[in-house]
Design a protein that fits this description.
The protein has helices at residues 7-20, 34-44, 59-69, 94-111, 132-136, and strands at 25-29, 51-55, 73-77, 114-118, 139-144, 151-159, 167-171. The protein is α/β, with parallel strands linked by helices and 175 residues long. The strands form two sheets. It has a four-stranded parallel sheet, sandwiched between helices. Strands 5-6-7 form a three-stranded antiparallel sheet, with no helix packed on it.
């Protein structure tokens, strides 16, 4: 989704729901500080002992946090803000986004770890970074809506294991 559509808010609420149902969730805050995310979680009623926040933007440190916490679900918000120091390009570049996503997917498979990677779209609606990001994941969801209105549409653009014919309609509000 585009900046400001509510991707981080929606993913945080989903992560809290998973934590309440018994999953251990590690939420990597690569773009915002953990304090900002924690404050948002508090406002949303999404704080939970099984929801861990870590502020990190380097893949090796993200993987160290995974090793320490031992989550069943990993959330990385956002792919464009995470970098692999072994890749010789700037964070957010096509090469970095592709390599970071591939590294996270390899780790997810090796650890049997459900992983959510938040990504941005450009002004013209294309996924920021390479199209290859779409090819390494099982599902691509798009959150769309005018940032000045309360309604958001969530639709699957790709789902490796089922239909993409359903959508969700969300209304942003105080509660």
């Amino acid at each position: 989704g585009a900046p400001g559509t509510g991707k981080s808010t929606l993913v945080l609420q989903a992560a809290a729901g998973l934590a309440r149902s018994g999953s251990t969730v590690l939420y990597v805050c690569a773009e915002e500080s953990p304090t900002q995310v924690r404050d948002r979680a508090r406002r949303l009623g999404a704080l939970h002992d099984r929801l861990w926040l870590v502020g990190e933007s380097l893949v090796p440190r993200v993987l160290e946090a995974v090793e320490q916490v031992g989550p069943t679900v990993l959330v990385v918000d956002s792919a464009q803000s995470v970098a692999d120091p072994d890749v010789g390009s700037t964070p957010g570049s096509a090469t970095q986004v592709r390599e970071v996503a591939q590294r996270l997917v390899r780790e997810a498979k090796a650890r049997d770890l459900a992983t959510v990677i938040v990504g941005h779209v450009t002004k013209d609606g294309a996924l920021a970074g390479p199209r290859a990001l779409e090819h390494v994941v099982d599902t691509v969801l798009e959150l769309d809506g005018d940032r000045h209105h309360a309604l958001r549409v969530l639709r699957a653009l790709k789902h490796r294991f089922g239909s993409t014919a359903e959508l969700g309609l969300f209304q942003l509000g105080a509660e």
